[in-house]
Design brief:
about 280 residues, alpha/beta, 14 strands
Length: about 280
Amino acid sequence: MTYKMIVLDLDDTLLTSDHTISPRTKEALLAAQRRGKKVVLASGRPTYAMLDLAEELELARYGSYILSFNGASIIDCKTNESLFLSTLSPETVHGLYDVSKREDVYIHTYVGHEILTEQPNEYTTLEGQLTGMDVIPVADFKTAIQTPVVKCLMMAEETHLARVEQTLQQELAGELAVARSKPFFLEFTEDGVTKGTSLALLSEKLGIAQEEVIACGDGNNDLSMIEWAGLGVAMANAADTVKEKAQYMTASNDEDGVALVVEKFMMDEEPTISSH
């Protein structure tokens, strides 16, 4: 099989534990793109928080893509064109705020390049650090959110959030997509919008067949794309649910797991684009 595109989760997949791309992985992805392969960064992160990694991997130069907000946005790095954007209405966000109060969890969302929250907390602080975005405390969450947003996050200690996730997946079925990206992050996007659905949309636009796509991930929010892709890959550090669904398991994010996949499955052609 000739694989034409590789889709990569960021945290705990592409990125090492110190949130960087290893030299071997970077070179493997650049080499794949020189062979005409597409690289897609697929994360729950906001688009803004992925631009530096896209630049490091030269996605604009090689015509690759960013799939952000858990699939709610697709950006063509070369043209900066938005290929897909899904949003939540202010009324939906206000409803999620009420649910967060009922379930005793924190909530935040994204406006522009800022994270808005009514209750500053350790999880939102961590998200600010991961994304490089400023955390802005607001006096009244509902008043602050008067225009559509792409995604909301609820946050709490892992055991409590797992219970909340079960409750809300049942309660919001058919209304919103609900998925955990980290043990303490529960993500909400428009119903039917996942990394998998957006990957399918992008592949169709590019004329790349499902069986020609590799997807690598570690978390439950990666399951949709791992199950959809021709080759679904779990990292050695992935959740057990991900390992059960994946067709192939690679080394961990700290052991060049992504590089090993690229070297094994995507180096079957000679470079078509100069590296200079």
